[in-house]
Give the backbone structure.
Amino acid sequence: MFAQNNNADTAIIRIENLCKSYSLQGADGKTIIGQVLFDINITVNQGEFVAIMGHSGSGKSTLMNILGCLDIPTSGSYWLSGKNISTLSENELARIRNQSIGFVFQGFNLLKRMTALDNVAVPLLYAGISRSKSRQQALTLLRSTGLEKFAMHQPNQLSGGQQQRVAISRALVNHPPLILADEPTGNLDTQTSKEIMQLFEQLNRDQGITIVLVTHEDDIASYARRLIRLKDGCVIYDDKNIINSDR
Ligand code: ADP
Ligand code: MG
């Protein structure tokens, strides 16, 4: 008998009926519940390259924070590599964030007083690896992203594109199967954005790293093979990426 082709086997992300609400204090002191995500169902398989698009305020970052285990859904389920996130302790979640997910943000989020090398080494130190070994591995990563000669520079001695490469090196240093990037080229010029996207493309193609990327630019989204569109907290499109770009 043939095994059934079951998505659960290769799903790195599976969310079902996910909703997210925030409660806010209104001007009159009463609590207002604002729902941001409505009944989201998404499965992402290993090796996919997905772009999430939508207007500002449509819930993209809220969704990414949940995918990254930085926030929890109000209702619904999230399985990351088959693990039901809601059953995990704070320690287990911290471990998953450190080992299984690489984060890349629009504002790079580097530690200002540290060198590029030490920024990249931080996740290894958290994972309990010695300082000298961490630095060694961080240097290997910086070499692979073309930044070896900037290893001893601090963030303010680097261009935006170089800072984002440091951030990507940091995201990769624990060899996570999943990269979550929230508007990673939002602060970069067109040429530098292209270089950063080519780096993501290469990581996806050559190392099979799953990439989920938020952007509102067609040129950036065009690197992804699958496109998810959010509108007012709902998925309105989830299919092949048909965006054409003249990049
Ligand atoms: P996007 O990234 O698509 O621009 P966000 O996910 O940041 O959108 O925000 C979606 C909506 O959720 C916005 O209306 C925003 O005001 C609201 N929101 C986000 N975070 C919070 C929070 N911590 N508390 C209350 N409302 C929030
Ligand atoms: Mg956002």
User: Anything to note?
Assistant: Residues 1-8 have pLDDT under 50 and may be disordered. The longest helix spans residues 190-207. The beta strands are 11-25, 31-45, 49-53, 75-80, 83-84, 101-105, 178-182, 210-214, 226-231, 234-240. Residues 22, 24, 34, 36, 54, 56-62 surround adenosine-5'-diphosphate (ligand 1) (CB under 6 Å).
